[in-house]
Amino acid sequence: MLDLRFADFAQGIWTTDREACADLRSIDRSQPGSTVAIFRGLMETPDRICTVYGAEQGAVESQRAAMNCDLVAGGDALSLLTVRRRGSQGLMVQDGERPPEYYRFCRGIIPVTQSVSQ
What we know:
By secondary structure, the protein is mainly β. 8% of the residues lie in helices and 49% in strands.
């Protein structure tokens, strides 16, 4: 069965450099490959914004998601992303056939409805 969102373990903002997390103000201003934001059915990196159109459901430690991505440079692309939990603060992200990259948890994402009410 397919789902339209990422697993709970993948939700948040992740960086390759823990020091960069403190100064992170905008994903699109980060260095390519250094930051990924995952929230519900969306994934954003410095060079693209993707929407999940199919993901494995019930994945505990690993999940694959098929995505449609809008590229900042123009155009769009389809992508297959695999995310794997690594400990309590790590995430391995593999985009298609590229080698997996390790990201550390930076911070959670507060839904707009919650941030307005606070």
